[in-house]
Amino acid sequence: MENLFLITLLFLILFEQYKTRVSRERIPIRALKQYVHR
Questions:
Q1: How far apart are CA 31 and CA 15, in angstroms?
Q2: What is the pLDDT of residue 27?
Q3: C-alpha span between 10 and 28 (Å, rounded)
Q4: What is the DSSP letter of 27?
Q5: Overall pTM surpassing 0.70 (yes/no)
Q6: What is the DSSP letter of 19?
Q7: What is the separation of C-alpha 15 from the centre of its chain, rounded to a whole number of angstroms?
Q8: What is the spatial distance between Cα 10 and Cα 25, in angstroms, rounded to a whole number?
Q9: pLDDT at 18
């Protein structure tokens, strides 16, 4: 069960990095800064 949890956690981290990479290319920098400072 712990192994499944670690695999899921690792997958979520990689997925978050992928989303930020894609959104960084598509979303303007100004909108990204507003999202960070929110």
A1: 21
A2: 64
A3: 28
A4: S
A5: no
A6: H
A7: 6
A8: 23
A9: 84
Domain total in the chain: 1
Give the CA distances from residue 23 to residues 8, 33, 36, in Å, rounded to whole numbers and listed in that order: 22, 12, 13
Q: What is the pLDDT of residues 1-38, one digit of tens each?
A: 789 999 999 999 999 888 888 766 676 667 767 777 76
Give me the residue label for tokens 């100004």.
Answer: 30
The torsion angles phi and psi of 28, rounded to 5 degrees, stand at -60, 155
Return the amino acid letter for 36: V
Residue 26: domain span: 2-37
32 within 8 A of 24, measured Cβ to Cβ: yes
CA dist 29 and 20 (Å) reads: 12
User: What length does the chain have?
Assistant: 38
